[in-house]
Amino acid sequence: MKKEEKDKVNLGVNMNNKIEEIRGKANRCLNCKIKPCSKGCPLENDIPSFIGEVKKQNYQKAYEILTNTTFLPSICGRICPHMSQCMGSCIRGIKHEPVEIGKLEAFIGDWAIKENYSVEIKKANGKKIAVIGGGPSGLTCSAFLAREGFEVTIFEKYQTLGGILSHGIPEFRLEREILEKQIQKILELGIKVEYGKELGKNLELKELEKNFDVIYLALGANSSSKMKIEGENLEGVLGGNQLLENNLHPDYTNKKVAVIGGGNVAMDTARTIKKLGAKEVEVIYRRARKQMPAETKEIEEAEKEGITFRFQTNIIKILGNQKVEKIECIQTQLVKKEGELREVPVNVPNSNYLLDIDYVVMAVGSHTKPEMVKYLEKEQIQFSQRGYILVNENYQTTKQNIFAGGDVIGSKATVAWAARAGREAAKKIIKYCGM
To answer: Average pLDDT over the chain, rounded to whole?
Structure first.
């Protein structure tokens, strides 16, 4: 048998094995009537129904069910914190392992791309929508609008779409080829893109208002928050969000790095820095491990890669002569407080100690870039005291024809929640336009 023929046979065998593996995972689903997994999903995907079609190997129908609520199955199936969302709500997980919902969703997303499945697009309705930002919120909003016959143009400041997916999540967590294929699948709905367009620089809100019926702001909020402690302005204090977005790192060789925070940005930053050659990387988190918002599998991967964790610890001061040299830490105890949903970390008196550190990375949250806030406020877009765009229940800003969603309005900082905001905003835009 020729090599080409052998390769084709092997490919077929591998694919058959993959299909059998997926069917095995799908067959574990109990098809619960109350659908707790769907309730645990930020996008409220109809999980039992799409898995039911996977059992029958009706993959196109499974894809159609998913596209009622999401256009990012290949992405969310891979990077969502499943154990704190859909899988964490799976009935199977009470006594056994939960159904691997993420892997099933990713399989259907990948299969739809491979087989070039499409969705029905309604006749053009003559309405034009400008979407500022091509991250998960902007992409999702664009997809749901384009499907309903709107003429959508995405304005993206970079030369690639994806937002945090491209400029925040490292490739070891999300392969660029998969991301590009998922984005291309969305653009096939007829969405236009103008790259290298940044609001307030070479793109003006007033001009967009003249040419579009509605504007959707999906700008993200990728400026790292600080802790407001002494020494934050020293050289060597870095922002996790900016490091991931710009991929501009110092030389970590033989350096000790402290990453402050417990979310996925902290995990992604710590793992990236370790892979770039840091001698020691330690994640410092003020609560207990079980309270970390990061996905469990990401914490476990970080541990496997040699990253250490210091729990119930606060950093209260950064010391150094112009550059970071040490950090002062203090132990915390967790106490219950009235009005708080979870235990609050309180500093333990006289438990202070010092650590030698070369770099401190802040990964304790993010907000809208100050220059963007200043620009939008001049355009009569109001912000909350916490630095998020103010919107009403319809995702409208203080200007009725301008909508906003995702991280820029303070949504929960995950891809699925940003996508949900984009989808729900699309529904409100459709209603606003009288469709």
So the answer is: 93
Spatial CB neighbours of 404, under 8 Å, sequence gap ≥ 6 = 216, 217, 218, 219, 381, 389, 391, 395, 397, 425
371-398: average pLDDT: 94
Are 258 and 363 in contact by the 8 Å Cβ rule? The answer is: no
Give the mean pLDDT of 60-77.
98
Here the CATH number for the domain that contains residue 160 is 3.50.50.60
pLDDT computed for residue 6 by the predictor? 47
Confidence tier at 212 by pLDDT (50, 70, 90)? very high
Exposure b/e, 387-402, CB count within 10 A at least 16 = b: bbbebeeebbbbeeeb
β-bridge partners, 34:
none
CA nearest neighbour of 213 among 157, 290, 131: 131
Q: Please count the structural domains in the chain.
A: 3
CA neighbours closer than 13 Å in the CB half-sphere of residue 321: 0
pLDDT band at 11 (very low <50, low <70, confident <90, very high): very low
Which pLDDT belongs to residue 1?
52
pTM to 2 decimal places: 0.90
Q: In the prediction, which pLDDT does 181 show?
A: 97
In angstroms, the Cα distances linking 316 to 225, 286, 325, 334 are 15, 11, 14, 17
Assess whether pLDDT exceeds 60 at residue 295.
yes
Residues 267 and 154 both lie in one domain: no
Q: Are residues 104 and 146 in the same domain?
A: no
Of 341, 365, 389, the residue that ends a domain is 365
Rounded to whole angstroms, the Cα distance separating 391 from 396 reads 5
Last residue of a domain, one of 114, 145, 171: 114
What is the span of the domain harbouring residue 73?
A: 13-114
Nearest in space to 47 (alpha carbons), one of 31, 24, 23, 25: 31
Determine the pLDDT at residue 8: 44
Q: Does residue 292 contact residue 285 with C-beta atoms inside 8 Å?
A: yes
Asked if residue 291 and residue 191 are part of one domain, the reply reads no
* 161 burial type by CB count under 10 A (0-12 exposed, 13-18 middle, 19+ buried): buried
Question: Which residues have a Cβ under 8 Å from the Cβ of 71 and sit 6 or more positions away?
Answer: 139, 140, 143, 144, 185, 186, 419
252 and 328 co-located in one domain? yes
Q: Are residues 278 and 267 in the same domain?
A: yes
In this structure, are 195 and 229 located in the same domain?
A: no
Q: Report the distance separating Cα 321 and Cα 346, nearest Å.
A: 29
